[in-house]
Design brief:
Blueprint lengths: L4 E6 L3 H11 L4 E7 L3 H11 L2 E3 L2 H7 L4 E4 L6 H10 L3 E4 L7 H14 L3 E3 L7 H11 L6 E9 L4 H6 L13 H17 L2 E9 L10 E8 L4 E7 L7 E8 L2 E6 L2 E7 L27 H16 L7 H20 L3 E2 L3
Parallel strand pairs: 1-2, 1-4, 2-3, 4-5, 5-6, 7-10
Antiparallel strand pairs: 7-11, 8-9, 8-14, 9-10, 11-12, 12-13
Bound molecules: nicotinamide-adenine-dinucleotide (NAD).
Length: 344
Amino acid sequence: MTKKARMAVVGCGAIGRVHARAIAGLDQAELVAVCDVFEESAAKLANEFGCKHYTDYRKMFDEEEIDLVSVCTPSGTRLDICEAASSRKVNILVEKPLDITVERCAKIVEMCESAGVKLGTVFQLRFTPAFKQLKEAEQRGLFGKMILGNSQTICFRSQEYYDGGGWRGTKAGDGGGALMNQGIHSVDLLLWVMGDVKAVSADKASLTHDIEVEDTVSATIEFVSGAMGSVQATTSVKHGIDKRLEIFGENGTVIIDGENVVMWEFEDEPSQGAHDIETREGISAKSPLIEDVWGHQQQISDMIRAIREDTEPLVSGRDGMKAVELVLAIYESARTGKRVVLAE
Ligand SMILES: NC(=O)c1ccc[n+]([C@@H]2O[C@H](COP(=O)([O-])OP(=O)(O)OC[C@H]3O[C@@H](n4cnc5c(N)ncnc54)[C@H](O)[C@@H]3O)[C@@H](O)[C@H]2O)c1
């Protein structure tokens, strides 16, 4: 890789713009080209950031020398783009969710592994101080035996939000609703800290929207470790509580609301009140648009580091696949009314 990572963005919508802004603010990267099936969208972003634009990503990969591409298209469209990129030895950072079925995710992971290119999934919350410190506490064994892990994403999206994108709230484009789209960030955090899931039992419904997927889901989780927990997500609550993660071990408790630590207590450590934990302004649960590009900058920098050092990124393609696998197991349980077993 040359001094600066030469980057491209495929998908010039809301999150494609976040990636372009994030790349533009990084010393170690430069935005070479953007691509969207709508030329107007691609040209607009390219003009703003002074790069080339394309309507065909295969042509872009053939004509441009690209080290890393950000895939920012609708959730059910990643497989073909990843195939085109990996076959041309372009490293890939895919927006969450990695794709919308386990089979498609597995193909993406296998293609990248056999092509020898790095694959990352965007879960930018992992880079925020509160969650990094939570993971460190778990790695240091401060929790002791894990007892309970709960994640909630209680937010609001209007009917116009679902009607606006064409793909949002559809099985084919979004792959699911409140959990696959909004709640998957917390699903990843829960898996990261609590470990693999053994089984799930769940309910889901569309309570306030006219969409073919759920706007509300509630699941009971059994972890392989023996710990228990829950996952809830909804886009039906106007005065929600943002994302909330509660981790209870036999020797301590951490509760994080949004990116704010509201409880941090461990038996073997002097009490570290919430005021001692580094925090930052974060992402709003009230708005579907992300104004803040800090988390994406951290994640893009980590991908560049992984390419340069030939190591795994902090959030791998396999991590992205695991989150999708859990979301789909929750959907399957809600659909059948039966407990779904993921690991014995
Ligand atoms: N990390 C986060 O917090 C976060 C936030 C918002 C969205 N997202 C994810 O980003 C993805 C896109 O969401 P969005 O809100 O930006 O959607 P969007 O509809 O605003 O933008 C998607 C863009 O992709 C383009 N596109 C579709 N198919 C294409 C193809 N084959 N080739 C090139 N361009 C194509 C569309 O024309 C559109 O401009 C979703 O998967 C979503 O889950 C992640």
